[in-house]
Amino acid sequence: MIEFGDFYQQIAKSPLSHWLDTLPAQLSAWQRESLHGKFKQWFNAVEHLPLLTPDRLDLLHGVQADMQQPLSAGRLEGIETMLRTLMPWRKGPFSLYGIDIDTEWHSDWKWDRVLPHISPLAGRTVLDVGCGSGYHMWRMVGAGAQFVVGIDPMQLFLCQFEAVRKLLGGDQRAHLLPLGIEQLPELAAFDTVFSMGVLYHRRSPLDHLYQLKNQLVRDGELVLETLVVEGDRHQVLVPGDRYAQMRNVYFIPSTEALKGWLEKCGFVDVKVADVCVTSLEEQRRTGWMTSESLADFLDPDDPTKTREGYPAPRRAVLVARKP
């Protein structure tokens, strides 16, 4: 079983200590009642990975770990076999001792777009909501964050995160919890909260923004990345059954509408930091994610539209402050 004792010890003497009133019971119930049918297989892969301490660790320019003395071919083959047991790998990439996990998403490109527009992370306590495999969490650590907590209910992502953590020497600066944002109390303890690629999956986007706000300290910063459409402050797309083959997409606002939502929820200093159309180079199928990807979700005759006829995915990054 994945243990959370180190995390409990770390938050016990921090502004997050009151989370211990509810969190251990939640995670115990999760261990007892909610494990995915493949969880044992995924967890066994993590267990069989060696705990390695890299001689060179670069979390500033990527997630890269290396040894001065290269690992043997046989050992590398064993590590890669375990990592492939955890496919599909969606968020990355990772470069670990010569094994390059070429993920579906070039999450490094998104990070490069986000980082110049946010407050420096040095010394900050950070929450990453819907963190996936934890790629951006490691980049947050690389940017100087003191402590990073990621939450994502997908259990495969938890195992991917723990696998990478083992190969990074058991680094305790980042932790992933198998929770959704709605399971968090009002912690009001994080200096920065990231929500990237989550808002359009929420049935009630304003409730999601309030939940994010409740996790921030006063003057804390929200970094929000989500799908948007072109249009004025009244423009919001409500897709039918599917959007780009995804079933659970509820509201896609214009950037101006999204700015208005944030202000309605009490955020101030709301800024649109970046807007870009997702390219076929940024999201694609790879040897580590072999099922359908963006190219399969677009109209083959008009790549500016999805197969359903909606505008192709466009993403915006907004930054806002909790007063």
From TrEMBL:
Signal peptide: none annotated. InterPro entries: CmoB, Mo5U34_MeTrfas-like, SAM-dependent_MTases_sf. GO terms for biological process: methylation; tRNA wobble uridine modification. One of its GO terms (molecular function) is transferase activity, transferring alkyl or aryl (other than methyl) groups. Its EC number is 2.5.1.-. Carboxy-S-adenosyl-L-methionine binds at residues 91, 105, 110, 130, 181-182, 196, 200, 315. Keywords: Methyltransferase, Transferase, tRNA processing. SUPFAM superfamilies: S-adenosyl-L-methionine-dependent methyltransferases. Residues 299-323 are annotated as: Disordered. It catalyses: carboxy-S-adenosyl-L-methionine + 5-hydroxyuridine(34) in tRNA = 5-carboxymethoxyuridine(34) in tRNA + S-adenosyl-L-homocysteine + H(+). The keyword Magnesium does not apply. It is an enzyme of class 2 (transferase). It holds the Pfam family Methyltransf_9. Homotetramer. Belongs to the class I-like SAM-binding methyltransferase superfamily. CmoB family. Catalyzes carboxymethyl transfer from carboxy-S-adenosyl-L-methionine (Cx-SAM) to 5-hydroxyuridine (ho5U) to form 5-carboxymethoxyuridine (cmo5U) at position 34 in tRNAs. This is tRNA U34 carboxymethyltransferase.
